[in-house]
């Protein structure tokens, strides 16, 4: 029988500042054509009350990482290993990776303690039920309250996320709302149970600049108001600069650099992070051609020896970078700034 709860003195328990801890987390898909290593040994800590941004190109495993944490990856096709440690304020630690995917205990955590904003609200909401009914159902799944009280709480949450005339919007269908309003409704659904952790997967994709700015401002405001922790997934470094406290840069299923936003943006160490920042649009270079990253993310079945970024890296050294995978190590005198690169190790 597996043990789901560990006490505070367990080796797996950590500082009370850590809310979520991932240890050697892997999500592999075994297919007829080979193994897809969507998440390939991620080690990551998320501190309470902080906003962590996870960035990287498409195909680097960002979305699958969040779905693995939520345990909504398409199992049993997805083979999950490693630990997803959920540290509660009372000192108990729950390993979400050990739960059966359809267990009641996991469902109680998902949605109530951990909420999620999906990338495209239109595909997340049912088109045949009203917005209000769907959010109410999410609330009553986790709390035993009357329909009347649930409706009042949902209308209040719609108001908090900035939806005008929330009583009327409660009765609206998803297709009757604009993209920005649907995104706010999705945020309301994710927050209705007041989760400790909010995971947002590309929350501003396909929104215009004005709406994007209002959504980001709303998320930051709610994070402070509700004392939440947020993990936001995006390919847009501008979003990270506006919203996040910490950054983890993901490439081909793993973390190549992580640390506070100021250190990552002011002093990027990994060549991939440097390339991402160089290709970021800036006002001062508005009339210049944007820099690009040479090459492309390897295919899903391609297994590369050594550092997976080596074929695209201008600093790569054949006998070093292609020989083994570098470890994620702290940069001397840089606090929590970590990098996975042989060229940054003192022994090189």
Describe the structure.
30% of the residues lie in helices and 23% in strands. With 348 residues, the chain is α/β, with parallel strands linked by helices. It has one domain: Rossmann fold. The strands form two sheets. An eight-stranded mixed beta sheet has the order 7-8-9-4-10-11-13-12, with helices on both faces. A hairpin with a 2-residue loop joins strand 10 and strand 11. Residues 1-14 have low confidence and may be disordered.
Question: What's a quick, concise take on this entry?
Answer:
It contains twelve helices and 13 strands. It has 348 residues and is an alpha/beta fold. An eight-stranded mixed beta sheet has the order 7-8-9-4-10-11-13-12, with helices on both faces. It has a five-stranded antiparallel beta sheet with strand order 1-6-5-2-3, covered by helices on one side.
Strand content: 15-25%
The name CATH uses for the topology is Rossmann fold
**Terminal Cα span:** 47 Å
Order of helices and strands: EEEEHEEHEHHHHHEHEHEEHHHEE
CATH class group: Alpha Beta
Helix content: 25-40%
Count of individual beta strands = 13
The main pleated sheet reads as:
8 strands, mixed
Structural class of the helix and strand makeup? alpha/beta
Per the principal axes of the C-alpha atoms, what is the gross shape? globular
Strand order of the largest sheet: 7-8-9-4-10-11-13-12
CATH superfamily: P-loop containing nucleotide triphosphate hydrolases
User: How many DSSP helices?
Assistant: 12
Our count of domains comes out at 1
Poorly predicted runs: 1-14
Give the mean pLDDT: 87
CA gyration radius, whole angstroms: 21 Å
The CATH architecture can be named as 3-Layer(aba) Sandwich
